[in-house]
Amino acid sequence: MKLKKWLAASAAAMILVSGASAVSAASITTAGDQKLDLGSSISVLPGERTFFGGQFHDWLLTGNVEGTIQEILAQGNVFPENSVSNKQFASVAASILKSAKVYQVCASANDTYYQGMVLSIAVS
User: What is the pTM of this model?
Assistant: First the structure.
């Protein structure tokens, strides 16, 4: 019985802590360091803490970003075969993606829970 109470108390504490951190962060800082306020009805979580955002973040940090982009361009026949444009475009795209910020936004209305991913990219 003590174990059930301990587990329930731990779960309640985790929910309160995660809920408090989500409610307090109702804004997004874009990749260009601009603050975007979304209001109190929307919760914002760092994308690195979500499944898909974490996968994207890990790929950007440890993956072969330029090589993957080059493969996609080659498969799609975007540029002529053996063109230096594939490498140049992949290099520029990788540098832009590495400066990106990822967020998860959540809201609920009328017994429905909504969530989405926001990818902020600064391009000048």
Answer: 0.57
